[in-house]
Specification:
The protein has helices at residues 14-23, 47-55, 75-94, 119-122, 124-141, 159-171, 192-198, 226-230, 246-259, and strands spanning 2-7, 28-32, 59-63, 99-102, 109-111, 116-118, 148-152, 177-181, 203-208, 238-241. It has nine helices and ten strands. Helix 1 (14-23) packs parallel to helix 2 and helix 5 (124-141) runs parallel beside helix 6. It has 260 residues and is of the alpha/beta class. The strands form two sheets. The chain has an eight-stranded parallel β-barrel with strand order 1-2-3-4-7-8-9-10. A two-stranded antiparallel ribbon has the order 5-6. 38% of the residues lie in helices and 18% in strands. The chain has one domain: Alpha-Beta Barrel (TIM Barrel).
Length: 260
């Protein structure tokens, strides 16, 4: 079983993150590409990273930058976002990364008296077409590589726009995979549990954290029954504990081992 922690805040470099994971019972690490220390241009010398990874039989995964939306109607910004994601795909393949978790993102929203009104809800067809185009462009760019592109249920994960497009692309047989965030799905706000159940074979990465009034809590301190959630899933998936800081991820790992 591959179990890692989500490396983000307070990290300093890739090698130190790998060492922390290895020293604390993890055999994987998910590098969050929002962090400057993980940027491709700041990691030119990757030989030591590869050597440590291979010597300790570790798995690396990436989390794509969360400030890049695949539904941005400003063409110049949309194109720049795709360019950056392609740079990250290139870097991932240099490091023999297992998977890249990607958020679809969303348009801005306006606060109403009873709910938030997203721009994409008024321009549904434009949003669907743009999301589809962007995902297929990334899949096509990645077609000769081993890294798996995984869309995560995070933030705005609506059935009408997001899930419909993902299902369409999956049904067409494209190399698109999924990251199932169990903590995000706890409230099942967008009926995402049914979507992931239907596409269970496409799940390659799991994000694990507990929920108690809010998500990203230490595993075992909230309401989620992890034994029940995990029993139907393939044990050969990449399990990423998304609890911060990393010391809390270690505590979550210890608790998860007791639960399982």
């Amino acid at each position: 079983m591959k179990i890692g922690y989500a490396a983000s805040v307070f990290e300093t470099n890739i090698l130190d993150s790998l060492k922390y994971a290895n020293d604390n019972g993890f055999n994987s690490v998910e590098l969050n590409m929002n962090m400057i220390c993980f940027f491709p241009e700041n990691n030119k010398d990757i030989k030591k990273i590869i050597e440590f990874k291979e010597a300790n039989n570790m798995t690396i995964s990436f989390h794509a930058p969360e400030d890049i939306s695949l539904i941005n109607f400003h063409k110049i910004i949309n194109d720049s976002g795709l360019k950056r994601l392609k740079e990250i795909i290139d870097f991932a393949n240099k490091l023999d990364v297992y998977s890249i978790t990607i958020h679809t993102g969303s348009t801005p929203y306006f606060t109403g008296i009873d709910k938030n009104y997203y721009v994409q809800e008024q321009y549904k067809e434009e949003a669907r077409l743009l999301l589809r185009k962007n995902i297929l462009e990334l899949i096509n760019y990645n077609k000769n590589n081993k890294v798996k592109l995984c869309i995560e249920n995070s933030g705005y994960f609506s059935e009408i726009i997001i899930q419909e497009v993902l299902q369409e692309i999956i049904n067409e047989g494209h190399e698109l995979y999924l990251t199932y965030d169990i903590g995000h799905a706890h409230l099942n706000k967008y009926n995402e549990k049914e979507f992931f159940k239907k596409n269970i074979s496409k799940i390659k990465t799991l994000h694990l954290h507990d929920y108690k009034d809010k998500d990203h809590k230490i595993i075992g301190t909230g309401y989620i029954d992890f034994r029940e959630e995990l029993e139907s899933l393939d044990k050969d998936l990449l399990y990423i504990i998304e609890v911060r800081p990393k010391e809390a991820a270690k505590e979550s790992l210890d608790n998860l081992k007791k639960i399982l």
